[in-house]
Structure prediction request, 618 residues.
Amino acid sequence: MSLLIVGSVAFDAIETPFGKTDKIIGGAGTFIALSASNYVSDQRIVSVVGEDFPQSMLDLLQAKGVNLDGLQIKQGEKTFFWSGRYHNDMNSRDTLITELNVLEHFDPIIPEAYQGVDYVMLGNLSPQVQRQVVERLHERPKLVAMDTMNFWMDIAMDDLKQTLALVDVLFVNDEEARQLSGEYSLVKAAKVIRAMGPHTLVIKKGEHGALLFQDEKVFFAPALPLEEVFDPTGAGDTFAGGFMGYIAATGDTSFNNMKRAIIAGSALASFCVEKFGTERLLDLTKEAIEARIEQFVALTDFDMVETVG
Amino acid sequence: MSLLIVGSVAFDAIETPFGKTDKIIGGAGTFIALSASNYVSDQRIVSVVGEDFPQSMLDLLQAKGVNLDGLQIKQGEKTFFWSGRYHNDMNSRDTLITELNVLEHFDPIIPEAYQGVDYVMLGNLSPQVQRQVVERLHERPKLVAMDTMNFWMDIAMDDLKQTLALVDVLFVNDEEARQLSGEYSLVKAAKVIRAMGPHTLVIKKGEHGALLFQDEKVFFAPALPLEEVFDPTGAGDTFAGGFMGYIAATGDTSFNNMKRAIIAGSALASFCVEKFGTERLLDLTKEAIEARIEQFVALTDFDMVETVG
Prediction:
């Protein structure tokens, strides 16, 4: 099955307690595509870069099965650039620089060859752009998922709510779920958010794992306890990319298969944080991923054979 | 098998966003004993109360199989009293009153009938008192577990380390694990703490579940996502009591059985927070506990039948 990705393809410069990078490749679309490519072979991306973006990275995406017909290259313009510094606990960060550049007036054009796509992952972008993509698809895909962030809740809540009404699955972190719903309890927040449109909600809790809500059902996925988080940049996108890659590869949107998709996404995210940017994702084998998934199985596996009392 | 509990039997007065109580029954020893009584029928408690403590509660503990020979009743003295107020997020609280009373000069005398006990749970008390209990047992029990808190790390770290060297299992929360070890990563913290004595470490993360570390093995137990946490008081003690009650009832200290014990403790803690103080624990049926444990099984159960890529 095929997966359409919409998201930034960008430059990042990152500082963590372990070191700092120059401009390296980043962007939600990049992380999602690299992560999903471990499962799905037919990907199509809608994005935009400037003339400064390296052809080598585009070649690499193409080699991983990503169709780039919808990736606009703007001559005379510059690629989106973000720079940030993580605090010692790695759970919070300061944005140092945001240069929107080509993203400022991004018109997400859908190539004709992309029509009829099976699955859609809308990476974090303005809710208006995300909505345009859904509206420009002639046929309703089997499942549309989106990511968003607190920034859009602060400045474009009405827009965001219009887009939420069109999607099936929403990814947010716990603080964003609280802000979006006005509820502190994540169980209550999930009810409020699901009433806004998405039938399925995934709440990402970083080192505390993730929660999957659908109807009255809940699934709690662990995060792998790690000795060191080297660089969290892109972990959430890698998680979502793994999730949607798994769904698209299996063509199964049941709750049970979404649980597996969350584990796949969690495993890929646990690799992402081991090195700067996309470095670790470019270096993955199928065997390494399967071994990591086995660690997740072992981490939560128990059997209540004995009942006593 | 038998379980020896050492811990406060006390009065609490609690304020939460949902209401406030007068003096009600509390104390680590009380929560541990009530929780463990769902699994183990032979319990023995070492504790102290004043003459103001109600006989009815002592009768109730006895009816639940708790031997009170080691519970000292100090005539002319008052029971330990703690009062606290929870903040809106229920994750932090202010202590309003602490009256040590009978706990100030507590000498934990072990009745002769308690000797030969199989399992020991040292509730949060001064590390010196906890150590005295272990030293006064003529035979080494099959497993000795202890709880502690940041307060003792602040004022009695050397004492605490002496006691840690004598125990098998330590319960702490994530902040306490970080303070005790000086490591932010819980994986690194677990290594440092296990080198201090306990071969097994349980890190309680409240709404984020719990981690069990032993040798190179890790187990991640979920917390049940709740609509409302009404009163968190005693949840950690209830968790530890359920854990040690399950271990004592099954007589099995293998890692696999400790996983089941964590689930049992988590299930009981999820009841504890539903009402003020011990109220919900006094009201539990075997059926309700088994149904709650089934919810935990469903919450983390997945099977990675499909491998793709």
